[in-house]
């Protein structure tokens, strides 16, 4: 079927959603929001306010679960508030992940640098059984990782510290310089290639006993970071990859409540990701105020009938009283 929907003015866009049952108290604010945010982006925040389709109702696609009509007692004003909440949520989440990322760079470079300044380029200093697995017909995982690193170094050639090194020295960047060039995703891939003893050393710095837990957690946090950095909807997102089943023996008391998170669907919601993040930041820096700062943002979730951090973001009931989110 060819797409045939017509272009609408901002005023007409507001009239369209009103005709479908969405209330609006402040029309001037709503039109300003449509101008600044865009109808399509804002529709991600009006969508949860639409009526659910009956089980046997016709659908235009496999992912259509709601009709075009809105439920009672919902408004464009609330959708704008939800959008602004999500914006604040993304900002505070990125702040926390950046702190974790910096600590991860230090941990990886310190563990590998002790072995050799070029340990990241030599599988003798890594986990050969993983490095030598073939990711394609033409290259191993480590070879592919090195190729990607070379591209990132080339893209960073205008950075002063890279230019200084390349003009003064011959050869490859040592690990403590390379970790400042590689992306977070590339750093996480390197961590996966590391020797188990080195992986465990890094993970213990974040309060996690072994790399088998930090590995998937850091990978998933890279997806959370990308979602936030690209200004995508975060608050009720179901991430593509689920966190693994919780291993209580791997972490301390402040994270034991994650044992209550049941099923793959719940492990794809935001809460377990940010709970791990808060726990790791507190373990690596006991003076951090990020968990309390994050909690302050979530506590200001707008009042919208049927929506809440507990029902849509995976937050457990009574989460605000957990030691993880309180000032120490």
How would you explain this protein's 3D organization?
- The protein is mainly alpha-helical.
- Helix content is 54%, strand content 2%.
- The protein folds into 2 domains: 65 residues, no CATH class; 242 residues, no CATH class.
- The chain has 15 helices and 2 strands.
- Strands 1-2 form a two-stranded antiparallel sheet.
- Helix 9 packs antiparallel against helix 11.
- The model has no long low-confidence stretch (mean pLDDT 93).
State the main characteristics.
mainly alpha, 2 domains, two-stranded antiparallel ribbon, 15 helices, 2 strands, 54% helix, globular
For the terminal residues, how far apart are their CA atoms?
58 Å
Biggest sheet character = 2 strands, antiparallel
Amount of helix: 40-55%
* C-alpha Rg (nearest Å): 23 Å
In the predicted model, the low-confidence regions spanning at least 5 consecutive residues are none
Number of strands: 2
User: What is the topology, as strand order, of the major beta sheet?
Assistant: 1-2
Specify the structural class.
mainly alpha
Q: How many domains? A: 2
Estimated share of beta-strand residues: under 5%
Tally of helical segments = 15
Give the overall form. globular
Quick check: average pLDDT? 93
H/E series: HHHEEHHHHHHHHHHHH
């Amino acid at each position: 079927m060819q797409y045939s929907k017509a272009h609408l003015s901002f005023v007409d866009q507001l009239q369209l959603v009103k005709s479908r049952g969405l209330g609006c108290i402040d029309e001037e604010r709503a039109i300003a929001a449509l101008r600044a945010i865009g109808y399509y982006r804002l529709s991600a925040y009006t969508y949860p306010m639409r009526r659910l389709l009956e089980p046997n109702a016709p659908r235009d696609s496999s992912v259509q679960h709601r009709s075009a009509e809105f439920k009672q007692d919902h408004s464009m004003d609330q959708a704008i508030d939800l959008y602004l909440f999500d914006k604040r949520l993304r900002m505070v989440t990125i702040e926390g992940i950046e702190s974790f990322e910096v600590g991860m760079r230090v941990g990886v470079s310190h563990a590998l640098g002790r072995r050799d300044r070029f340990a990241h380029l030599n599988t003798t200093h890594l986990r050969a059984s993983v490095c030598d697995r073939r990711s394609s017909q033409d290259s191993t995982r480590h070879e592919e990782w090195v190729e990607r690193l070379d591209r990132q170094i080339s893209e960073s050639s205008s950075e002063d510290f890279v230019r200084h090194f390349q003009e003064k020295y011959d050869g490859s960047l040592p690990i403590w310089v390379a970790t400042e060039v590689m992306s977070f995703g590339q750093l996480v891939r390197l961590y996966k290639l590391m020797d188990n003893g080195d992986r465990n050393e890094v993970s213990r710095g974040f309060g996690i006993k072994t790399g088998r837990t930090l590995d998937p957690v850091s990978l998933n946090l890279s997806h959370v970071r990308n979602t936030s950095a690209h200004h995508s909807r975060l608050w009720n997102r179901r991430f593509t990859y689920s966190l693994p089943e919780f291993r209580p023996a791997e972490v301390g008391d402040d994270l034991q409540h994650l044992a209550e998170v049941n099923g793959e669907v719940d492990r794809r919601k935001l809460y377990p990701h940010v709970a791990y993040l808060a726990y790791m930041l507190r373990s690596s820096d006991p003076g951090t105020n990020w968990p309390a700062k994050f909690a302050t943002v979530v506590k200001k979730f707008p009042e919208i009938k049927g929506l809440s951090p507990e029902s849509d973001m995976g937050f457990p009931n009574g989460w605000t009283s957990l030691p993880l989110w309180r000032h120490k």
